[in-house]
Amino acid sequence: MPLLLLLFIAVPIAEIALFIEVGDWIGLWPTIATILVTALIGTTLVRQQGLAALERARTALAEDRLPVAEVLTGACLLVAGALLLTPGFLTDAIGLTLLIPPLRNAIGRAVAGYAARNGRFTVHTTGGGHPGGMGGHPGGGPGPRRGRGGAPIIEGDYVEVDPDSPDPGDPPHDGGHTDPDRGSGR
């Protein structure tokens, strides 16, 4: 928590200092105009990239792939949008950085690696993977095995049930008469 508190104190101070410096350099109204223009351009870019990421996520789900990269992209775009809407040059610079896909992917890999090393989640690797890098199935695996007709194979334990035998938890359905093989029925 101390890091978060430090950020909440340091970022506004840095933004105020940058406002003063840029305002002295280019003037009050150009400074305000620059902040508004970066917010408009940033939100437009966030919207375009967000819709593209949503479409890629739909495609991944239609192909029975987990949209891991798309979720990461969406999270980065959410943070970028919040930073771009926050008035300031420092937050705009960080927000615009998150809109550059190679930088966003590098940041995402670093955050995922950090979270995996610190026990936030476990990464299982099975080989194969999605050619695009971070996307695909958990751990970058090749995806679910397929059976006849391309249907995914669901693996698990099962118990065979005779459809003619009653469920042991059901009450008897013979009008109150008991079956000598099933006990007293009370």
Q: How would you sum up this structure, described in words?
A:
- The chain has 186 residues and is mainly alpha-helical.
- The chain has a domain at 8-122.
- 56% of the residues lie in helices and 0% in strands.
- The protein is built from 5 helices and no strands.
- It has helices at 2-26, 28-62, 68-85, 89-97, 101-117.
- Helix 2 runs parallel beside helix 4 and helix 3 (68-85) crosses helix 5.
- The longest helix has 35 residues, at 28-62.
- The chain is elongated, with a radius of gyration of 28 Å.
- Residues 123-186 are annotated as: Disordered.
- This is FxsA family protein.
- Residues 126-144 have a biased composition (Gly residues).
- Residues 170-186 have a biased composition (Basic and acidic residues).
- The chain crosses the membrane at residues 26-46, 67-90.
Oligomer: single chain
The termini sit apart by 61 Å
Secondary-structure class: mainly alpha
Shape: elongated
Report on the biggest sheet: none
Helical percentage: 55-70%
Number of DSSP helices? Answer: 5
The tally of strands reads 0
Q: For the CA atoms, what is the radius of gyration?
A: 28 Å
Determine the mean pLDDT.
Answer: 76
Which H/E pattern describes the elements? HHHHH
In the predicted model, the low-confidence regions spanning at least 5 consecutive residues are 123-141
What share of the residues does DSSP label as strand, in percent?
Answer: under 5%
In short:
This protein has 5 helices and no strands.
List the helices and strands and how they pair.
Layout: H1 2-26, H2 28-62, H3 68-85, H4 89-97, H5 101-117
Helix pairs in contact: 1-2, 2-3, 2-4, 3-4, 3-5
